[in-house]
Amino acid sequence: MEGMAKTEKNDGRPQLSVVVPLLDEQENLPSLYEQITQALKGRYEYEILFIDDGSTDGSFGILKDLHTSDPRVRVIRFRKNFGQTAALSAGFAHARGEVIVAMDADLQNDPADIPMLVAKLDEGCDVVSGWRKKRHDKALTRRLPSRIANWLISRITAVRLHDFGCTLKVYRREILAQTRLYGEMHRFIPALASWSGAQVTECVVNHRPRVAGKAKYGLGRTVKVLLDLITVKFLGSFSTKPIYIFGGLGGITAVGAMLSGLVVLYQKFLSPEHLSMNRNPLLVLTALMITATIQFVLMGLLAELLVRTYHESQNRPTYVIKEVLGPFDNPGDQA
Asked: DSSP label at 190?
């Protein structure tokens, strides 16, 4: 393919890196490896990075055997479970390909869709997101919360995708170079990339029912996603100017304090009832709003100091690696 040919290097780096985070997926790993190999072999120079996110079953033993039999398989093993976002972050940091594919290990993502997604990069896209148009998940606990979350994310971030939660995505390497992920923020990469000027699109992909293992997420994740959405919106709109949002809130409370204070003065001097100021609850409200105004402004100033410290400080990873199989570059050289 034309786009992939342009990314091929002469320094031994693969064209394509497939990043697969996993937790207790021993029954799915052999079949997943075979399907990825079948989809990519003969098409690209590739590598497969499995990120073992603290599995307690036999997953790492299987990955170790795969690495021994195929040098294109590389493995990162965490000391404990840090979550899918941290696992993807580790995979992105250690991937060597110019194009990076992320996918789940539960066989619900179809590796046969990878060439189609990669082909979209030739059209000038930087991020291609999978859209599980026909999902094979439980309606109440998975599909309904996902649909609500996708609608909210799409409206708040102004990035029009149907399925932010689909792990199967293709990224150009440079898009991920400056992206740091926390919480459940891996699903917001298209929005973060779009805010940086990247071209984002989506493709309908095949979604298969889970045949082995257990789902790791339920309704509880929805709350985390919503909280992370608030964080992402704040970072996207106010990360370099937090005084604007805190100052704006301070302005609102200042206006409220002024109006409340005027009502108190009116009731004291102009109202026929001549309500005593020390018995007027609006006086307490005025004092509270004045206090809130001062606090919001001070919080904005403190946030400005923290933002400048953050941008000037060294980046620290969100994971601790226990064991590494295969050659890895220094993650600091990946940008």
From this structure: H
- As a whole number of angstroms, the distance between CA 284 and CA 279 comes to 9
Q: Given the DSSP bridges, would you call strands 169-172 and 46-52 parallel, antiparallel or unpaired? A: unpaired
Q: In which residue are the tokens 């964080």 written?
A: 231
- Tokens (6 digits) for 227: 């909280």
Cα(227)–Cα(183) distance, rounded to whole angstroms? 9
3-state secondary structure 4-41: HHHHCCCCCCCCEEEEEEECCCCCCHHHHHHHHHHHHC
Question: Concatenated DSSP letters for 80-104?
Answer: S---HHHHHHHHHHH--SSEEEE--
Instruction: Name residue 14's amino acid.
Output: P
Instruction: Note the pTM of the prediction, 2 decimals.
Output: 0.72
Return the DSSP state at 195.
Answer: H
What are the beta bridge partners of residue 22? 52
Q: Is 114 helix (H, G, I), strand (E, B) or coil?
A: helix
The pair of three-digit structure tokens given for residue 63, joined into one six-digit string: 């990955």
Collapsing DSSP states into helix, strand and coil, what is residue 323? strand
Asked if residue 13 lies in contact with residue 98, where contact means CB atoms within 8 angstroms, the answer is: yes
User: pLDDT of the chain along its 335 residues, tens only?
Assistant: 544 544 444 467 899 999 999 999 999 999 999 999 999 999 999 999 999 999 999 999 999 999 999 999 999 999 999 988 899 999 999 999 999 999 999 999 999 999 999 999 988 899 999 999 888 777 666 677 778 888 888 888 888 898 988 999 999 998 888 677 766 778 888 988 888 788 999 999 998 887 876 766 655 666 777 777 777 777 666 666 778 888 888 899 999 999 988 888 887 777 666 656 667 788 888 899 999 999 988 888 888 777 767 656 656 555 667 678 877 766 544 44
Angstrom distance (rounded) from CA 188 to CA 213: 26
Q: From residue 110, give the alpha-carbon distance in Å to each of 34, 113, 292.
A: 12, 6, 53
Instruction: Note whether 205 and 168 are within 8 A (CB).
Output: yes
